[in-house]
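call fold(seq) -> tokens
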Amino acid sequence: MKEFDVEVVGSGPNGLAAAVTLARAGLSVRIRESQPTIGGGTRTSELTEPGFLHDECSAVHPQALVSPFFRAFELTKRVRFLTPEISYGHPIDRNRTGLAFRDAERTVEGLGVDGRAWRSLLGPLIDDPTSLERLTMMQVGTAGFSPATALRLASRALEQGSSLRNVRFANGIAPAMLSGAAAHVARPDSIAAAAGGLALASTAHRDGWPIVAGGSQRIADALAADFRAYGGKIETGIHVTRLEELDGTVRILNMSPPAVARLAGRNLPTRYRAMLERYRFGAAACKVDFALSAEVPWTDPRLRGTATVHLGGSRAEVEAAEREVARGRHARRPFVLVTQPSILDPSRAPAGRHTLWAYCHVPNGSNVDVSEAITAQIERFAPGFRDCVLAKSVRTGLDFAVHNPNYVGGDILGGAVDLRQLAFRPGLSVTPWSTPSKGLYIASASTSPGPAVHGMAGYLAARLALRREFGITRAPDLSFAPSAERL
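ret:
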């Protein structure tokens, strides 16, 4: 007789979400994690100096606020989100800066002649947030979804991913802001990146782009606490190498497709296993965490009012940098994503000090330290930044891959984001979380709905397993109050 109904491999947000859902349904569940601590991409630790808390990967969480799983889990009652009025800033040349306020009309006013174009592009998506969330979170067909919003997003992505992307704009600030949002996803002049960027930019004007007080680790800790309250067991430092090592009737793997193929071996049909092995990965990230003696001395002081800053200059500069990476080269002036959590959360650093999180894209598999190029881009828009640096910690693309095996080659998004792998991750299927092997499921960012801290891949895999393996069709109650009563 098996000790557990379900075994989950991996304790990132998706693995934890799957485990919580299954435990709440009354099943016995165990998580096995290869690292000594839980959290995956939401880990927070002292990477530079004592007292400086750095998010090891994910730092800003717009998708956590719009995730159907986290809403059902009532995450905002368990952790404290800190949301700035300015979701993100994007400085360009001649001391001009684009600011994406949570208030869309304030953003429109700040864009001057291009304000109307910004409103016409994003307004229909902002005005129907439920449909957009259903679409991006693989909830098409559920209550609140409108096909019209999907068509609006598709038409705008076709425009922004083509040579027509600048037609509606008169100056360079708004296009640069859109390319900065799209560069979170992929090369910003592609249709897939444009779609992701438009969806992400829309969240900036709804729930905003928050950080978590105390660090992203608090999200993993909240999930783990709930899981344990419902009888779940977590084992860390356990490296599972064969499917036969797992006790459960059902196995849910928060792993990359090639890792699933290796683990399952002949338990999977040859054709399906080959499909997992062919899964494509995108650019890697090289990340630098800084311990600072003071706030970043931005030339535009308004950037001190946001946790997220996009550095790369104009749309043309951002696209050129990302094209270089796509061609397998390191950009001389990379597009840099910056997060400065301590301006909202003093607990991240000793009194009077600050933390800064920054990364740029590099070719997959890169072991090159590009911290100097990242520093130069920050210095470009914040002269004197170097004088504020007390210490830094660098993680190259290969360092990311070693630290988290799901980041193959340093790809922190869990796979290349193009049209095919945006819609079908890891392959063409209406239930991409299932495999041909009975009781075996995949629940990582390499499955739909893809990257970001939303827990939906784990939740959807768990719901599918509940229906197929246990005949449980009703979603378990995930709300905070029942859990609190049991603690």
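Residues 456-470 form the longest helix (15 residues).
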